[in-house]
Amino acid sequence: MDTTVEIIGVYPVVAEEPIHIIEILVKNSKGIFDLSEFTQDIHAQSKESWQVPWDEKLLDIDGRKVVADDLLLSKKHQLWIGDIRIIFFFHYLDFSKPLMTPFGFVNIPEEKPRPERLSQINYESPD
Rounded to two decimals, what is the model's pTM? Predict the structure, then answer.
């Protein structure tokens, strides 16, 4: 089976700039992939300036518990196999454009309130 991505939810974050939490389910993951490939095309900018995930976290399959924090540093291969659930912050999300992923494009659903199970997830600015 091919690896696919489903966006479970998009949740607004109260901050000085537009930020959202994106919760995704990667189905049939074969191993570690590059989270910086989750992005959106900004025609007027070079690819190096496009937004990428920030402060990624791997959740258990039910989305209730953080299993691994800072996924860019967590390269435990076994955590990346099968169906995996990830959340990350994304700055300046454009709802009119799909999210580019290493596994194809995914349309962005409408935002909805953050579920209580994610209330412990706090935004910290990359600055």
Answer: 0.90
Q: How far is CA 119 from CA 11, 71, 80, 105, in A?
A: 11, 19, 24, 28
Burial class (CB in 10 A: 0-12, 13-18, 19+), 120: exposed
3-class DSSP state for residue 37? Answer: helix
More confident: 72 or 127? 127
Give the separation between CA 29 and CA 25, rounded to whole angstroms: 10
What gap in Å lies between CA 127 and CA 114, rounded to an integer?
A: 24
Quickly list DSSP for 53-109.
-EEEEEE-TTSSSEEEESTTT---GGGGEEEEEEEEEEES--TTSPEEETTEEEPPP
- pLDDT tens-digit map of 83-118: 999 999 999 999 999 999 999 999 999 999 999 999
Cα-based angle 36, 53, 69 (whole degrees, multiple of 5): 100
Query: What residue ranges do the domains of the chain occupy?
Result: 4-110
